[in-house]
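EI: anyone free to look at a 181-residue chain?
SC: sure, send it
EI:
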Amino acid sequence: MPSSFDETLTLNPKGNLTMPKTKPQVEKPKQTEKSKSENQQVPANKELFSDTNVTMKSGHCVKDAEVVGEGKYVKLRFACNKQFENPHDGEIKTNTNYFDALISYHLKEAFDLAQTFKKGDWIYLKGEDSTKSFDTPEGYKKTASTIFAYHVVLKKEKALTPPQDQTHNEPSMKVAEAIPA
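SC: here you go
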């Protein structure tokens, strides 16, 4: 089920997601009730912190999607760019970040759509971040982050040949969303 935040995003003519010009309204937390123990407080609204681990990313697949974990997950590797202006010389710089994402077979529509993603496809996904630490054989401590996606969108397939007529070139999107249990 999309949140009110998702409903405010729009797709501009270039195919980019844009935010509204108005400020989003922030709901103030409700007062807490005292529990049996004086030192412990319980939120009056149990759903107050239900969406604290949500991430939304848009980027290009850097390799084809692959099915892993005995067919239980689709694994994606994609890149997101951030552009900024260098304050010293005014030159536009680009910073690229790479992300890994997994889509569970329990989320049928998202799982089926994610399997079709190819290198170069422009995708959008929404999910939860998960970070794990581990020790390498050399004795170093490493951290790996993965996005467990439950909403995936194919914003634009990688074009094999350039379009002949760009006057009727509207972005076509394939959307799959599943509500986590």
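EI: The mean pLDDT is 77.
SC: 👍
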